[in-house]
Each structure stands twice: as structure tokens, then as C-alpha cells.
Specification:
One of its GO terms (molecular function) is iron-sulfur cluster binding. With 474 residues, the protein is an alpha/beta fold. Helix content is 38%, strand content 14%. The protein has 18 helices and 14 strands. Helix 2 packs across helix 3 and helix 17 packs across helix 18.
């Protein structure tokens, strides 16, 4: 029997991804994908048409008996109710939990977006200014850009129309903005799954109370150690550890998921082994990365703060970090992107020297349809510096142009990259020796040093010194 009355629930996002209808339940943080005539049925529901009217329209449009159309409409409505998108007259209370995994788990939604050239996740740099000056930070603090509120709303509008289901609001320090709650409210209004990235220093009990009104997927908080001594050796500002941990606890108390984000460097390497247990002890998830990136002003100084190949491998062995998967496809300029505070859209959240276009002058639709996007993506995916040509480890190399040196000035001449280090560490973790012709082995040999004991910054510097010496001799 066809349902007579349907009520659409709030906190639901609608996305069209190719031929697929994607509905986002912000309350449960789940996304579900429907195919076939689902898009038309959903549009008619949102237009206020009754199930009976929708069934009559469907029967006429696809030329099937009315009974078959009614069955299809009822099945669709039952699915919507089961995933929390509607209430049905004859159903009371919430639907029982579905045994099916939502599409935003295990990469299914990611794959659908990737196949349809739709941004799955977009990082939005709301501003550059920050209250901290962490020693490894890639931000260029000579710039003080703040994205105007009207631009934020315009970009969110365009991303929703494009089909993008997820955004990360980041900076700089986003809570330096007085309008941050307005931005969060508008992000939720547009139906996104979204996360916040902050150092937590400005999250008080009052701020946490305001955040609890929204359906936030997670608040990522930068925490670099299990103690103030370790954390503040990196932030270089006393009192920041206490503020960050207090923020995490305030949010967790209010049911907001928290993920502590740690970047492993030489100064906090030993402490990193206890970081997972520390995060779990306060009820938080965690993310640890041992990869450093050059500063966005072109400086490679942050790379000199990194850990060695042997240390990377040890973190993998201990289960603290995850080894890379060389089979994963690069999603730059296809499945993810980053919008800067001055409106440039970049191919991903780490490539910063090749803009796809500027959203202040060109629409996202036009940028995404331009030949330049495809050309840039091809240059990124196929990017291999000259040093890669003779390396026997190339089949195992991480498929990330940014870590291969795409971001670095004069990257073609750089004798080694962060990708070389990551790949060599992965080989060591798996019990395989690096190839003698690999960049890490060659540069370390020229320096007379142990290749497993150096970090990327030292090897790059040492290799460039060798190149410059050879050039001078000529």
C-alpha cells in the first residue's frame, strides 16, 4: 500500500554526482547513494508532491503500469525512512539501524566522486593568520589574507552545486574569525559533511556549547605531544598544550568527535610512540603523520626538522603510523581540492604552486570544465623528476607529486625528495633493502653518511651542495 503522507526531515544535504543522487544525513554523519529514477523522485518530493502524484507521474514518464510505479515509489520512500531522511505516516519513531554500511565509509562515496570527476573533499583556507608559529608550519605568515564572508558563502554554494559532499574548514587559526559560527552555520545549512581544523586555543566552554548545536563530523586539533614540554617545543608558546587539551575535553564532553593531529619531527619522535594511548585516554581519535612539506613561500627549511628513514620505519612497525600504499590513485584535481583565502583553487590540500583558477573571477563550474584542469592533473599524476629515471625503487614509490618535489622551487634539480624517504622507509619496514641506485642511497654515499639515519632536509641540502660543487668545478 502506498504511503499517503511523507515529511522531509531537516539536516539533510542533497548532491547530484553524475547520474547518482547522494543524500547526506548530517545527524548520523552518513551519506547514501541512490541510482535510477531516484533523483526525479526526490526532486518531486521536495517540490511538495504527494506519493500518489509521484507514482502517477512515474508511470506516465517511463510507461509502466501504475501498480509497478507505486511499488517503486514505496520502495524508495522506505529506503529514505530507513536512512533517516523522511518520516512516514504509518511508521512511528526512528528506523532500526541499517546493517548496510553507509557510502561514506570504506571509500565507496570517494570512488563514485572520483569516477565522475566530482570533488569528494575540499579544504577551505578561511584565513592565513594564526596565534602560533609552529616550527614546521607550511603557512607563509608574510601574508595576512582573510577570506571575506561573502566569498565563503559563494564557494560553499558552488561546491554544493558541483556535488561535493565534504569540506574541511581550516586556516590559519579559524577561531580568530569573529564570524566563524556564522560560517559553520552556513556550511551546515548547505548540507555538507564537514570538519574543523584548529589548534583549540580559543575554544572555551561557551564556544564548545555553541559548537554542540551543529552536526560536526570531527574537530581536528593540532597536538604535537603527550606533555607540555614536547608540544610547546614545537609551538614555541607556553600554555598552548593546556589550552589544546582543555578544548579537546570540552568538545568530547559535549559529544563532538575530536581527532588529535600530530606531525612527527625529530624533537617529538620518541614521544610519538605513546601518542595513540594518550589520545584514547581522553576519548579522542588521532592522526599521526611523519611527512613534512616545504613552506608555501618556497623555503625547504621545514624539511630539516623531519625524522630519518629508520625512524619512519620504526613508527610503521610499532603501528603508530600507517605505511603508504603505492597502488592508491592520486586524486589531485579530480577528487579533492583546496580553496585559498584569496580564492585560488588548488589541485589538493598539499600542492600549492599550480592553481586551477581563481573563484573570484571564474566559476567552479567553468574551472572544472576547462582543458587546463585535465592538463594540470596529467602533469601531476605523471610527474617524475629526472632523478626517478634510474631508480629501481620507482615501482614502489608513493604516487604523490607533492612529496616527489612538485612543490619545491627547482624541484627538477633536487637530488632527493620526501617521497624517496617515505618509500625507503616503507621498504625497510617490509624487510627490503633500498636499491643502490635510489636517490637516497646515491646522495648518502656522496655525503659519506648512513642513508637510514638522514632526514629529507639534510639529504636535499647535502645533495645540492654536491651538485653545486660539481658545477663550480666545471
Amino acid at each position: 500500500m502506498l504511503t499517503q503522507a511523507v515529511t522531509l526531515r531537516d539536516k539533510v544535504g542533497t548532491r547530484q554526482i553524475g547520474a547518482h543522487l547522494c543524500l547526506i544525513n548530517q545527524r548520523s554523519q552518513q551519506a547514501w547513494v541512490f541510482s535510477g529514477v531516484s533523483s526525479q523522485l526526490w526532486d518531486e518530493l521536495r517540490a511538495g508532491r504527494t506519493p500518489e502524484e509521484i507514482a502517477l507521474s512515474l508511470a506516465a514518464r517511463v510507461k509502466v503500469p501504475l501498480a509497478k510505479a507505486e511499488a517503486a515509489v514505496q520502495d524508495f520512500l522506505e529506503n529514505l525512512w530507513g536512512h533517516g531522511f523522511v518520516t512516514l505516516e504509518e511508521r512511528s519513531g526512528e528506523a532500526p539501524a541499517s546493517a548496510e554500511e553507509p557510502f561514506n565509509s570504506h571509500g565507496r562515496l570517494w570512488n563514485i566522486c572520483f569516477d565522475n570527476h566530482v570533488l569528494f573533499r575540499t579544504w577551505i583556507d578561511l584565513l592565513i593568520p594564526c596565534n602560533l608559529r609552529c616550527q614546521h608550519c607550511y603557512l607563509d605568515f608574510s601574508k595576512t589574507d582573510v577570506m571575506p564572508f561573502a566569498d565563503v558563502c559563494s564557494y560553499l554554494d558552488q561546491l554544493a552545486e558541483h556535488g561535493c559532499p565534504e569540506v574541511v574548514l581550516t586556516g590559519g587559526e579559524i577561531f580568530l574569525r569573529r564570524d566563524i559560527m556564522d560560517i559553520i552555520a552556513y556550511t551546515q545549512e548547505k548540507g555538507f559533511l564537514f570538519e574543523l581544523f584548529t589548534n583549540g586555543n580559543f575554544i572555551t566552554a561557551s564556544v564548545a556549547d555553541q559548537l554542540a548545536k551543529y552536526h560536526i563530523g570531527a574537530v581536528q586539533i593540532s597536538v604535537y605531544g603527550t606533555s607540555a614540554a614536547v608540544h610547546e617545543a614545537i609551538t614555541r608558546k607556553p600554555g598552548t598544550f593546556e589550552k589544546s587539551i582543555r578544548a579537546a575535553k570540552l568538545l568530547i564532553e559535549r559529544g563532538i568527535p575530536v581527532r588529535l593531529v600530530n606531525v612527527v619531527q625529530a624533537v617529538n619522535y620518541e614521544d610519538a610512540f605513546g601518542f595513540p594511548a594518550f589520545a584514547h585516554s581522553i576519548g579522542a581519535d588521532y592522526d599521526i603523520d611523519g611527512t613534512l612539506m616545504p613552506n608555501r613561500n618556497g623555503s625547504q627549511e621545514p624539511l630539516k626538522l623531519g625524522i630519518s628513514v629508520a625512524q619512519m620505519a620504526a613508527l610503521h612497525t610499532a603501528g603508530v603510523t600507517k605505511p603508504p600504499n603505492p597502488q592508491v590513485q592520486c586524486t589531485a584535481a579530480r577528487g579533492k581540492g583546496r580553496i585559498t583565502s584569496h580564492g585560488d583553487i588548488y589541485p589538493c590540500n598539499v600542492i600549492n604552486n599550480a592553481s586551477l583558477g581563481n573563484l573570484r573571477t571564474t566559476s567552479l563550474e567553468d574551472i572544472w570544465a576547462s582543458p587546463w584542469r585535465n592538463e594540470l592533473r596529467e602533469s601531476i599524476v605523471n610527474y617524475k623528476p629526472t632523478r626517478c629515471g634510474s631508480c629501481s625503487n620507482d615501482p614502489d614509490c608513493v604516487p604523490c607529486a607533492a612529496t616527489r618535489g612538485f612543490n619545491q622551487e627547482h624541484h627538477e634539480e633536487a637530488p632527493v625528495s620526501e617521497a624517496c624517504m617515505i618509500t625507503t622507509a616503507d621498504l625497510l619496514y617490509r624487510g627490503r633493502a633500498m636499491a643502490p641506485d635510489s636517490p637516497v642511497a646515491r646522495v648518502a654515499a656522496s655525503m659519506g653518511s648512513d642513508p637510514y639515519a638522514q632526514n629529507a632536509g639534510n639529504l636535499i641540502h647535502g645533495g645540492l651542495v654536491q651538485i653545486q660543487a660539481i658545477a663550480a668545478a666545471r
